[in-house]
Amino acid sequence: MKYKLLGRSGLKVSELCLGTMGFGTDNGWGADKDTSFAIMEEFANAGGNFFDTANVYQKGTSERLIGDFISQQDRDFFVLATKYTLKDNQTNPNASGNNRKNMMRSVEESLKRLKTDFIDVLYLHIWDDITPIDEVLRGLDDLIRHGKVNYAAISDTPAWVVSKGNTLAELMGWSQFIALQVEYSLIQRTPERELIPMAKHYGMTVTPWAPLGGGALTGKYLRGEQGRVKAESNRRNENAEKITRTVMSIADELGVTAGNVALQWMRQKGFSCIPIVGATKIDQLKENLKTVDIALTDAQMQQLDEASNIPLGFPGDFFKEDAVKLNSFGGFYDRVEKRK
Ligand SMILES: NC(=O)c1ccc[n+]([C@@H]2O[C@H](COP(=O)([O-])OP(=O)(O)OC[C@H]3O[C@@H](n4cnc5c(N)ncnc54)[C@H](OP(=O)(O)O)[C@@H]3O)[C@@H](O)[C@H]2O)c1
User: Given this model, what pLDDT does residue 315 score?
Assistant: First the structure.
C-alpha cells in the first residue's frame, strides 16, 4: 500500500480507507467480532492505516471493535476517522445534529468506545441545515486545540456550505476541512456537478462512500450471489446493471475483479481520491486490496465514463459543452491552458 497526503495537510493515509459500517451485527447485518478483527488485521498487514467509522455504526459496536483492536496494536500507526451528528441512543434534543453541544458530547462518547484519547479525523456526518457553519468550525477548532481531534473533515453537505466554511476558517485562522466524504461511484456521479470541483479548489481529498454501490458494482447480483442491496433499488436498476456489465467486461479484459475496476476508475479521475471500501468477509477485502496494483487504459476510462455518463445540469452543461458559446467569449478559450 502506498500513502497519500490527506487534503491540504501533512497527514499520511493509506491509498485505500477501510469502511467499518459493517463491523458488528447490531443492525441485523454485518461481520461478527472475529471476522471484523480478521479484516482489520489483513488491512493493517497490507500497510493500511486509515479506518472510517461513525458514532452510530452498528449502534456503537463498530467503534468498540476498532477500539478493542487498536488497543492491542500501535495506536499511533493508525489514522482513525469517526463522525458526529446522528443520534446515538439518547433522548435529549441535543443528542443529534451539528450543534456544538452534540459535537462535544459525541466526541467524548466516541473516545470511550474507541479506547483512545484522540481522534485523528473528525467528520461532520450529515448537514442538519440548522446549525451555523461558523459554530461547527469553531467547535472543531477547539477540539483540535484541546488535542482531542487532529483534523476536521465533512461529509454529506452541500458544496456551498463547505465552501463558506473553509473560506471562513482560512480568514479566522481555524483548521479547515481537509477531506470531503460523499457517495460517489460509477452509479452515483452527481458529486461531479458541484462537490468534487469544490474539493479540488480547496485541495480537499474526496473520500467516496459506497464506491462499489454497496457491492452492486462487483457484479455479484448479476451472478446470482447474495448481499444486502435490494433488487430494483437505484444500485440495481436497469441503468446500474448496464454500467455494471461494462465494468465486468473490462475486468475480464484485465483478468481482475469488477470491484477492482470500479475502485480504480475513481482513483484515476484526476482528483485526490481515497475510496472507503467496505467488506463484511475477509475474502472481499483480499480481493479489493488488489486494486492498488491495477491500471486502466485511457480507452477503458473513456468506456466507463461513457457508460455511466450523467448530464451536469445547469450551469455545468451551459458553460462546459457549448463550443459555439465558447467562441462567443472571443475565440481564444480553446487555446488557453487550463489550471490543473
Ligand atoms: N458518510 C456517510 O454518509 C456514509 C454512508 C455509508 C457508508 N459510509 C462509509 O463508507 C464505507 C463503505 O460504504 P459501503 O459499505 O456502503 O460501500 P461499498 O464499499 O460500496 O460496499 C461494501 C459492500 O459491498 C460488498 N462487497 C465488498 N467487496 C466485495 C467483493 N469483493 N465481492 C463481493 N461483494 C463485495 C459487501 O456487501 P455484503 O455485505 O452485502 O456482502 C460490502 O459490505 C462504510 O463502511 C462507511 O465507513 C459513509
Answer: 87
| Coil, helix or strand at residue 115 | coil
Between 340 and 233, the more confident residue is 233
* Residue with CA nearest ligand 1 atom 38: 227
User: Ligand 1, from 23, 222, 223, 276: best to mutate by most atoms within 8 Å of Cβ?
Assistant: 276
Please report, as a single letter, which amino acid is at residue 299: A
31 C-alpha vs ligand 1 centroid, how far in Å?
A: 12
Q: Is 209 helix (H, G, I), strand (E, B) or coil?
A: strand
Cell reading at 78:
493508525
Choose the residue to mutate in 16, 21, 264 for probing ligand 1, maximizing ligand atoms within 8 Å of C-beta: 21
CA distances from 56 to 59, 81, 174 (A): 5, 13, 27
Digit-coded pLDDT (tens) for 173-192:
999 999 999 999 999 999 99
Task: Give the residue carrying C-alpha cell 469553531.
Answer: 138
Reported confidence tier of residue 271, pLDDT bands at 50, 70, 90: very high
Gap from CA of 236 to ligand 1 centroid (Å): 15
pLDDT at 116 over 80: yes
Distance 22 CA to ligand 1 centre (A): 8
Say whether 69 sits in a helix, a strand or coil.
Answer: helix
Residue 330 confidence class, pLDDT cut points 50, 70, 90: low
How far apart are the C-alpha atoms of 125 and 181, rounded to whole Å?
9
202 is catalytic: no
Predicted confidence at residue 244, as pLDDT, reads 98
Cα separations (Å) of 150 from 10, 38, 82, 124, 217? 11, 27, 12, 14, 34
Strand partners, 4: 13
Ligand 1 shell residues, CB under 6 Å: 19-22, 52, 155-156, 181, 209-215, 218, 220, 227-228, 259, 276-280, 284, 287-288
Q: Which domains does the chain possess?
A: 3-312 (3.20.20.100), 313-340 (no CATH)
Confidence of residue 89 (pLDDT cuts 50, 70, 90): confident
